[in-house]
């Protein structure tokens, strides 16, 4: 299992896509922080810097646009490309069960997107407010639990839905396009319970923070199970 995950994490095409979107997502974070500049300047030192730290992700629709497109591309490449090219015949001939291979793909995609998104979030925030080191450290201490939970749930959702669509699609291009549309449509249609965006949960505590995502977690779990079931039964060609 570890060898499968390592192989997936080192796949060069996925890493190239990740690098491209890392630049775009960093720009989205930076643009969001620049937009906060006037509010921050006019209310400092009473401005809650940890609030900016949390809102960089949950209130940033530009970030979500790039994140959904990145997830769709990475998962589509991971799940469908090898089937389109015939490489899957060799991979699924390895001494691992289909469930193990599919789970390794899912976990590696989840890990890549989660780690990179969280790392970019923290790095861009720290660099932007590097002149107020004490404020940055306080913001990290107060906001990091919410940010970590947010990225875990968002990544689980986008990877689960993208994986389900990809394993059900006829080719990589359809998988990427349909996954992206399925992930971003709730934003366009304002379907709030399908939009992984936070409310002011830092005022209510982590219990409310977790409870507010129950529906999304349940849906993600169902999609993950469906992805495994379809992947085990569908021909690899």
TrEMBL record:
Name by which UniProt lists this protein: ABC transporter permease
Sequence intervals crossing the membrane:
15-36, 56-77, 106-131, 143-166, 173-191, 211-230
Q: What are the entry keywords?
A: Membrane, Transmembrane, Transmembrane helix
Organism this protein belongs to: Thermococcus eurythermalis
Pfam families, per this entry? Answer: ABC2_membrane_4
């Amino acid at each position: 299992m570890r060898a499968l995950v390592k192989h997936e994490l080192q796949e060069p095409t996925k890493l190239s896509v990740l690098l491209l979107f890392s630049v775009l997502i960093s720009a989205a974070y930076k643009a969001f922080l620049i937009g906060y500049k006037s509010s921050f300047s006019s209310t400092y030192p009473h401005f809650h810097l940890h609030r900016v730290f949390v809102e960089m992700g949950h209130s940033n629709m530009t970030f979500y646009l790039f994140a959904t497109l990145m997830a769709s591309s990475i998962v589509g490449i991971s799940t469908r490309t090898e089937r389109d090219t015939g490489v899957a015949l060799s991979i699924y001939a390895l001494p691992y069960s289909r469930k193990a291979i599919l789970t390794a793909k899912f976990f590696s995609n989840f890990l890549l997107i989660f780690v990179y998104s969280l790392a970019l979030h923290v790095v861009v925030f720290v660099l932007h407010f590097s002149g107020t080191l004490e404020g940055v450290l306080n913001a990290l201490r107060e906001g990091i639990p919410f940010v970590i939970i947010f990225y875990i749930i968002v990544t689980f959702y986008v990877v689960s839905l993208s994986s389900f669509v990809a394993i059900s699609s006829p080719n990589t291009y359809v998988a990427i396009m349909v996954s992206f549309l399925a992930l971003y449509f709730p934003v366009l249609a304002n379907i709030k319970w399908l939009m992984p965006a936070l409310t002011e949960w830092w005022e209510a505590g982590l219990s409310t923070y977790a409870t507010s995502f129950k529906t999304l977690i349940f849906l993600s779990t169902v999609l993950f199970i469906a992805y495994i079931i379809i992947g085990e039964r569908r021909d690899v060609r």
